[in-house]
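Tutorial, part two.
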Amino acid sequence: MTSTDTLRLSSLVRDALLDHAVEGADRDPPEEVCGVLVGGRAPDRATATRRVPNVADHPRSRYELDPEATMAAVDAVEADGDEVVGFYHSHPESAPVPSATDRARATWTGYVYAIVSPPDAIRAYRYTGDGFDELAVQVEDDSRA
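Running the prediction step on this input gives:
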């Protein structure tokens, strides 16, 4: 497996993704949460996240990143000298694999789409323009920095 087949997550990012997903799962009814993965590309390494509100009509089973908040997050990421690695959302009641809706709504070709299922599952995919290719997820210990 090459570095282009892997999403590296700092352990702090892993924890942030899982915490955000659990928050959404604990709502009544449960809701998908979403946001932006921040760090560097080539190789893909997420060192931070930016939460973005889910504005989908049915947040229990769908996500839609708030367009205005997403663009503000992207602008802030770039202003900080970082890159958008991709996006994440949760599946509070299903496996972390792309749904038909996820496949239909993906638009950022070449970017990572991570899906988080509480309490502890994270899977990542690269959107090819035609579908998703699964990536290995490697968690890096932040204490080595």
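Helices lie at 11-25, 67-79, 100-105. In part three we will examine how such features are distributed along the chain.
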